[in-house]
Design a protein that fits this description.
The chain is α+β, with helices and mostly antiparallel strands. The chain contains four helices and six strands. It has helices at residues 21-25, 28-31, 45-48, 69-86; strands at 4-6, 9-11, 87-91, 101-103, 107-109, 115-119. Strand 1 and strand 2 (9-11) form a beta hairpin.
């Protein structure tokens, strides 16, 4: 790429340009007044169809997106299915709710997530 100016910003040849994905993932115009709140309905097909396809980028986007996207999704789903068949998960008594989030390159719960895995009765 040659040196250029985009919306008043000079970008020098060979300069690394990186998107601020955090700002995209927490944009109130996209996710509503409380983008940090866990609302899984945001990802239902009818709600997903209303958003720009690059509004959620856990694996990047475009031709250089993560090559392991599909494998990671399938492995994650299989792991969750196998765990939920054997256990019920409940919040630990020491779990602080709501979670206090620490922001950085990724977001993390400050004290982790404490749950109890209760074996299911699989005899039936």
């Amino acid at each position: 790429m040659e040196t250029c100016t985009v919306k008043g910003i000079n970008i020098q040849k060979d300069m690394i340009v990186q998107a601020n994905v955090w700002c995209v993932h927490y944009n109130k115009d996209v996710w509503g007044e409380d983008p940090q709140k866990f609302i899984p309905e945001r990802f239902l097909p009818e709600n997903k169809a209303k958003r720009h396809p690059l509004a959620w980028l856990p694996f990047g986007g475009g031709p250089r997106s993560c090559v392991g996207l599909r494998l990671a999704q399938l492995e994650g789903k299989m792991t969750v299915i196998r765990l939920l068949k054997k256990y019920s998960f409940i919040p630990s008594p020491k779990q602080r709710i709501p979670l206090k989030i620490v922001e950085g390159a990724t977001i993390l719960p400050e004290d982790g997530v404490n749950v109890l895995a209760v074996p299911r009765d699989t005899s039936t």
